[in-house]
Write a structure and sequence with these properties.
Blueprint (H helix, E strand, L loop, with lengths): L2 H7 L3 H13 L10 E6 L2 E7 L9 H4 L3 E10 L2 E10 L5 H7 L3 H4 L3 E6 L3 H8 L5 E6 L5 H11 L2 E4 L16
Helix pairs in contact: 6-7
């Protein structure tokens, strides 16, 4: 194989790190959504995390999901309307685990690659973590507008890899 053929087959950095985030997500035992996150400084991988129950606690596959329902008011066609959100409160999100298991000094100016757009809580935590960029693949429409505004206010680059194809070994059908 010549050098030009090798370079053509070589993945770009975004694809490379997002592939890793998806492979990390395969460790999740959440029945609703497998999420993986990786912390990158320059081209160096500094940490990985996935969503799941706290260590030593039964997870959702063993004990079932702990679903909490929240109602949020959203402006639709100039009118406030209630909007229901359901979330599992047994699970620590991948972004939260990433922040728990990495050092602040490593996060300064770094990039987080995450399989799914962060929810509002994770976005707040990431906004305060020292990172400079969030790259995600699957959107999370329930919090999209708020999260995008927050990232803009904080000056954090926030971008979706909508052209990305996850590795076949990491494919999962996502439920809401």
């Amino acid at each position: 194989m010549n050098i030009q053929t090798q370079d053509a087959a070589r993945k770009d950095w975004d694809t490379y790190f997002m592939d890793i985030a998806y492979m990390v997500s395969t460790r999740s035992r959440c029945s609703r959504r497998h999420v993986g996150a990786v912390l990158v400084q320059g081209k160096k991988l500094l940490g990985t995390a996935y969503n799941g129950a706290p260590m030593g606690v039964q997870d959702c596959l063993e004990a079932g999901c702990m679903i909490a329902e929240e109602v949020e008011m959203k402006l639709v066609d100039g009118r406030e309307q209630p909007f229901k959100k359901q979330r599992c409160i047994r699970t620590i999100h991948a972004e939260q685990n990433l922040l728990l298991f990495t050092d602040r000094a490593d996060r300064e100016g770094s990039i987080v690659y995450v399989t799914d757009q962060p929810c509002w809580t994770c976005a707040n935590m990431l906004a305060n973590s020292g990172i400079m960029e969030i790259v995600y693949h699957r959107s999370y429409p329930k919090d999209n507008e708020k999260v995008e505004r927050l990232m803009e206010l904080k000056g954090i680059i926030f971008r979706c890899l909508d052209h990305f194809e996850p590795p076949a070994q990491a494919h999962m059908e996502v439920t809401s």
